[in-house]
Amino acid sequence: MADIPIPTRAVLTPEGTVGAGARLPAIGLGTYGLRGAAGVAAVGTAIDAGFRLLDTAFNYDNEGAVGRAIIDSTVPRDELIYSTKLPGRYHGYELALQAVEESLFRSGLDRLDLVLIHWPNPSVRKYVEAWRALVEARERGLVRMIGVSNFLPEHLDRIIGDSGVVPVLNQIEVHPYHPQDEVRAANAERGILTEGWSPLGASSDLIGHDIVTGIAEAHGTSPALVLLAWSIALGVIPLPKSATAARQAANLTAFDLELGATDLDRLRRLAGTDGRRHSDPSEHEEM
Ligand SMILES: NC(=O)c1ccc[n+]([C@@H]2O[C@H](COP(=O)([O-])OP(=O)(O)OC[C@H]3O[C@@H](n4cnc5c(N)ncnc54)[C@H](OP(=O)(O)O)[C@@H]3O)[C@@H](O)[C@H]2O)c1
C-alpha cells in the first residue's frame, strides 16, 4: 500500500464552542452495510489505504465492526476519527445520553470522536433536547466533537439559539443530482462544515450518466473519481462507501483530479428539482 497517496488536505473545525483545536480529514469512509467480520476487514483495508474518518451510526448495526477495525489497526488511535449517529427513538435527554454510552460500549473504544443527531425528526419535536444531551455527553468526556445530520437551516438555528453551541458539521445528502446549495450555504454562514452522504449517488444511475462518464473519459479517470472531485471542489467532505480495497484506495486519489470550470458547469446541469435519494428532512421520521 506504500505507493497509495494519503490525502493531506485537511479542514479545520470551525473556531468557537465545539471541538477546539480538532482537525477533520477532507474525506471519510461510508460504512453502511459493512458488518461482521467482512465489515472489519473492509474498514481495515480502508484504514490501510489512508482513510482516517470513519462514518457509522447506531442504526447501521456495525459500530462493533468499525470499532474492532480501529482497535486492530496499527494506526495510532488519535489519528482515527470514529463518527457515529444518534437515532430518532433516543431523542429524549436521558435516552440520548444512554444511547451515546451504548454506542461507546458497542464500539469497544474508550471514547467516541464525533456523534451526530442522525435526522432532526421535526414531527417528534425533540431534537433540541437531543442536542442538549450531546452537549452534556461532550462535557462528560464521552465524545470529543458533536454535530448533526440532515438538518435544515431552521433546525440549526433552533439548537444554536437554545444551547449557544454550534455543531462541528452537518452531514447531508450531496451529489450532482442534489447539490443542496441552500443548506451548504447556510452551514458555511454558521461556521459549520458540510459532510456529504451518498457522494457517488449510491444505487442511482448517477455514476453511469453520460455527463459524468464523458468528463471521466476526457480526464482519463473513472466516473467515481469525477463525483468525488466534484464534492471536494465544493468544499464538501465526501463519505464514499466501498467494500472493495482497490476502490477504497482509488477513491482517495480524487484529490489529484482537478475539474475545470466547464466540467463543473456540465455537472451543474444534473441538478434536478428533486434529485434527492432520501426523504425530505422537514418530514422524514427516522427512528
Ligand atoms: N446521514 C445519513 O442520513 C446518511 C444516509 C445515507 C448514507 N450515509 C453515509 O454515507 C455513506 C455513503 O453513502 P452510500 O453508502 O449511500 O453511497 P455511495 O458512497 O454514494 O455509493 C456506494 C456505492 O458505490 C460503489 N463504489 C464505491 N467506490 C466506487 C468506485 N471507485 N467505483 C465504482 N463504484 C464504487 C460501492 O460499491 P462497493 O462497496 O462494492 O465498492 C457502493 O455500491 C454511507 O455508507 C453512510 O456512511 C449517511
Structural overview:
With 287 residues, this protein is α/β, with parallel strands linked by helices. 38% of the residues lie in helices and 15% in strands. It has helices at 36-49, 63-72, 93-107, 127-139, 153-163, 181-189, 210-219, 223-233, 245-252, 261-268, and strands at residues 10-12, 23-25, 29-30, 53-55, 81-86, 112-117, 143-149, 169-173, 193-197, 237-238. The chain has an eight-stranded parallel beta sheet. Helix 3 (93-107) crosses helix 4 (127-139), helix 4 (127-139) packs across helix 5 and helix 7 (210-219) crosses helix 8 (223-233). The longest helix has 15 residues, at 93-107. The chain is globular and about 55 Å long. Bound molecules: NADP nicotinamide-adenine-dinucleotide phosphate. The site of NADP nicotinamide-adenine-dinucleotide phosphate has 24 residues, from helix 9. NADP nicotinamide-adenine-dinucleotide phosphate binds next to helix 9.
List keywords for this structure.
287 residues, TIM Barrel, 8-stranded parallel beta sheet, two-stranded antiparallel sheet, 10 helices, binds NADP nicotinamide-adenine-dinucleotide phosphate
